[in-house]
Fold this sequence. Notes:
Layout: H1 8-60, H2 63-76, E1 82-85, E2 96-100, E3 113-123, E4 134-145, E5 150-154, E6 162-166, E7 169-179, E8 187-191, E9 194-202, E10 206-209, E11 213-215, E12 220-221, E13 247-249, E14 255-257, E15 260-262, E16 265-267, E17 273-275, E18 280-282, E19 286-288, E20 294-296, E21 301-303, E22 307-309, E23 315-317, E24 320-324, E25 328-330, E26 336-338, E27 341-345, E28 349-352, E29 357-360, E30 370-373, E31 382-386, E32 391-407, E33 410-425, E34 429-433, H3 435-439, E35 448-450
Parallel strand pairs: 1-2, 5-7, 5-33, 6-8, 6-33, 7-9, 7-34, 8-10, 9-11, 9-12, 13-16, 14-17, 15-18, 16-19, 17-20, 18-21, 19-22, 20-23, 21-24, 22-25, 23-26, 24-27, 25-28, 26-29, 27-30, 28-31, 29-32, 30-32, 31-32, 32-33, 33-34
Antiparallel strand pairs: 2-3, 3-4, 4-35
Amino acid sequence: MKSFKEDSGQTLVIVALCMTVLLGFMAMAVDVGFVFQAKRNMQVVADAAAVAGALDYKYNSSTASAKTAACAAGAANGLSATCTANSQCSGVSSTTICVNDPPLNGYHESTGYTEAIVVEPTPTFFMRMFHISSLTVKARAVAGSGANNGCLWALSKSGKDVSVTGSGSISAPNCEIYDDSSASNAMSLTGSGSITAKQIGIVGGYSVTGSGHISPNPPTTGIGPAADPLNPTAPTIPTGTCTSCSVSNTGSSDKTIDPGTYSSISNTGSGKLTLNAGDYIITGDLTNTGSGSLILGAGNYTIGGNFKTTGSGAVTIGSGLYTVGGNLSLTGSGALTGSSVTFYTLGSDTITGSGNMNLSAPTSGPYNGMLIYQPLSNTSAMALTGSGGDSVKGILYAPGAPVTLTGSGSMNVSLDMIVDTLKVTGSGSVNVTNYAAVTNTNTALSKLVMVE
Length: 452
């Protein structure tokens, strides 16, 4: 009978060979683990760089500035690397961040999106025995403005935040309404009107009195309070002195004035008053109360008193920032037109489109998208009354103020509203399109999202 002792040497050889293979797999597992760890770390850097670059471009519209911001974000997340722009990051031999704005790859090759690619050669340990001393690891991210589904934030913590009375209605089928009041009737519908939105979230409850309806039915209640989605910077208000510089156009002839400092400017006759383009400081009131027209050239206007139009003449408001220390009251019966305008007001706001009204916010600059801006400390009421054919586009920002929308017909607006409370009255419908998601996707209200 053959002895098993004769096979003992073979077993040792087999075990040795198996151990070599096992150690090889273990070595590969260790190196692959290091590579995956490097990949995770680099993805964090790529994400941070893409977000920083997209956010910077959103406000500065500069690819050079976006690149600088993206590289700084990479360094802040622990990666010191060469930073290049407009490259696919291929064929590199050292740690590199490539920032492309717009992206050169993927599904978002358009302005407003930033692509960050991070490439780093990662050294190996045990794989060197197979003459593999390093592996090139790559991470990529794309960030840009996404659709912000909200179009109404009612921020008051008590009472009726959103209310509709009469036969009027508010319709926002493509965006969301947030109601921060904890009251049982935080959203209130009285009469035959309706409240319609893509989604409705209420901290408290809702009430329906009459034949009206709320959609979705029921709305979502018991949500956490929504925060103010904006925190705009208040403008610096310039000052000037003019002791006897009033301008008053009272006749039927036309008058033109140049930029400067004035104590008051008024147009009470049937003639046309034109303010040439430039910057104005008016320590008192700016008024148009006659049948003549008022034309304001592009520029920045600082009005210490009231900005008031009540006449039948047309009012044309040039692009720029209008700082109103008193009340803004644009209630004339003539056509009201203003493109790329922002009203920063410290009093109340009343705008009535009994004539043809066409107002739109700027689409670039520090107040991109902002049509009316009342700081939180301003609790004065805001009222907007329109009719069919009116066009109003922008953000109404009045987080400390009650806002009333009144429609006598079908009033179609492209608005995002951040208010204390909102009341809709009248017999018409107010049809709301989400401004930041549809009309102007580059505002500060448009959320920044990771898309790739």
